[in-house]
Amino acid sequence: MDGRLPAHIAVGGLIRAVQAAGGFATVIAKGERDAGTILILTLDNCANATLYERMPQADGSRPYIVAKRQTEENKHEFEEYLARRRRQDSDCWIIELDVADAERFVASLER
Length: 111
Fold this sequence. Notes:
Layout: H1 7-20, E1 24-29, E2 38-44, E3 47-54, E4 64-69, H2 75-88, E5 93-98, H3 102-108
Parallel strand pairs: 2-5
Antiparallel strand pairs: 1-5, 2-3, 3-4
């Protein structure tokens, strides 16, 4: 056993943390209850989405890193990436956050 929280508990905690920060979070795609990967999708004024994924590092930490950024020029590419990612791993969770200073909020999840 690796000591990580089951995905559904981590997602519940993430949603409550966003709400406590005055934001809103919703589950876009529900993944595997215990071991699903959690992807965090943030938007800036309903545009310029950023997708974060927790990635293991050599030091044993698992910070959220930017997996993909959407711009005006690559909107379609971003949507395709998200759909492809979901097809590749049907067990992953996609959580959309609407919270002030989303990049800083996601960075604070590492602590």
